[in-house]
Amino acid sequence: MTDKTLWVATRKGTFRVAKVDGRWQPKLAGHPGVGVNFVARDPNTGRLWALLGHGHWGAKLSISDDDGATWRDNEAQIKFPEGARYLTQDMFEDPDSEHGVGWKLLTKKATVLKLWVIGFGGDGAIHVGTIPGGLFTSRDGGKSFELNLPLWNHESRGGDLLQGDGTGETKWFGTPASEGGEFAPGIHSIVVDPRDPKHLYVAVSTAGVIESLDGGLTWRSRNKGMILDHTPDGEAEWGHDTHFIECCPAAPDHIWQQNHVGVYYSADAAASWRKVSQPEQGVHFGFPVAADPHDGRRAWLVPGHSDQQRMTIGGGLFVARTDDGGETWQQQRAGLPQEGAFDVVYRHALVAGEGVVAFGSTTGNLYVSEDGGASWQTVGNNLPPIYAVRLG
Amino acid sequence: MAQIDVKLTRHLFAFFPQLEGKALQVEADTVAEVVQALDALAPGIAYYICDERGRLRPHVNAFIDNEMVRDRRALGDGVQAGQTVHILQSLSGG
Predict the structure, then answer these.
(1) Beta strands A72-73; A58-64: pairing state
(2) Of A87, A235, A109, whose CA–CA distance to A168 is shortest?
């Protein structure tokens, strides 16, 4: 049993899912018709934050202080400062090309294309990751947000384009998996060390894992042990397509990563990664990963069939769980559809908390387990495409 | 500055209900000034219409009477007394 609430961000609004009369029941809680990329509760204040992507009207931060009964735009919205630019690949008309188009490196003025993820520090900081890849932080409870310049100007993405022209080279790639066509690298994962709020990780698709030990003043790559299969140098420092990372709250040096090229696990605070894919168990490709709140060696995935297909393996939906740091995986299928299922689960749409594991798919299916994934209950089959599922 | 009538798509009233049903009139000499004046009436609306660089968002259209604005980047098109600026969502089909 749990008294937890699930917050579900969908293509068409925010849903609150709570257990009523012994049954998990979804209810539209706000933003009808609006794309919601992520929704989460700030554990420091209890405030709910929703990251909206209006089709016409841009990206907006929306907040609720009454458990989702009413929402309003946050007074301070996330905006790139004047002069913020980034290097990115862009398509252009190329009459010499067989297909009439080519790609070139361009310097673009930065505007927020997507608010993608929000994270909260034990010091009250609120961090938001965007496309293009900005990390915005508020240290005044959301009254203002500031772009983290050391990361924005990092040498891996061409240096300081605010004050000058930088190096002209970037190791960050586009992120074509992003729905909506925001073709620029973005920050989709923010991990704040529960022991030390100045110890931050972000993950970027496509660049990899980046760590700061000093509250965001300096940043370094943490991609050792990860092997690329889409660049000539498999052990390159940059270019890793990390899909999502999450640490175990009780054992934060244990970090899990679902990557484009496999599942990775680190037991040493991302100093090194070990590939723990097990293709014979279907564990290799996917987007989300959820770490157990207590046991650093336990995690859940919802695998998909390869980057070519990106749907269930053989039409049957399953969750994979490890209890031993990825040495072995078990498939958890009880209660999940085993034929005619073609669900894709996005990177933020699987969550594990005290006594509950839940996930939602782009086909609008939402499932909950209260026994660690041994069995699953269907919460709904007709929700809008699900982008994120969080507990709080 | 000139007195300009403003008509907004009803979609915006979902986010700025305080503007619904009002005859909107602002003082402005350019479309950019119209947007600024609207933001004074309904704080935040400028960031719905334009991005943080002041460019008209890709799926938003603005018209001066029946003519679509030419300068989507800075909204520098001039407006004159008696004209109406329309701000509408663009249709992408479907």
Answers:
(1) antiparallel
(2) A87
DSSP helix/strand/coil, B91: coil
The DSSP bridge pattern shows strands A386-391 and B2-8 to be unpaired
Contact predicate A50/A387, CB 8 Å = no
Q: Which position has the token pair 């300081």?
A: A160
Chain A environment of B60 (Cβ under 8 Å): 56-57
The yes-or-no verdict on residue A154 having pLDDT over 80 is yes
ipTM of the complex: 0.92
Read off the pLDDT of residues A311-344 as tens digits, 9 standing for 90 and up: 899 999 999 999 999 999 999 999 999 999 999 9
Give the pLDDT confidence of A257-266 residue by residue, as tens digits. 999 999 999 9
B46 neighbors B56 (Cβ within 8 angstroms): no
**Domains, chain B:** 2-89 (3.10.20.30)
Is A100 a residue whose pLDDT tops 70?
A: yes
Q: Residues of A with CB below 8 A from B94's CB?
A: none
Residues of chain A with pLDDT > 90, as a percent, come to 86
- CA torsion sign for A222, A189, A348, A23 is positive
Burial class (CB in 10 A: 0-12, 13-18, 19+), A343: buried
Percent of chain A with pLDDT over 70: 97
Query: Cβ contacts (< 8 Å) between B44 and chain A: which residues?
Result: 73, 75, 77
Helix %, strand %, coil % for chain B, to 5? 25, 30, 45
Report the alpha-carbon distance of residue A203 to residue A133 in Å, rounded.
Answer: 10
The gap between the terminal CA atoms of chain B, to the nearest Å, is: 40
Sorted by where each starts, the structural domains of chain A and their CATH numbers stand as 6-391 (2.130.10.10)
Chain A residues in contact with chain B using a Cβ-Cβ cutoff of 8 Å: 54-58, 60, 73, 75, 77, 79-80, 82, 109, 111-112
**Nearest residue of B to residue A81, measured between CA atoms:** B52
Residue type, B62: A
Q: What is the pLDDT of residues A161-209, one digit of tens each?
A: 999 999 999 999 876 555 566 778 999 999 999 999 999 999 999 899 9
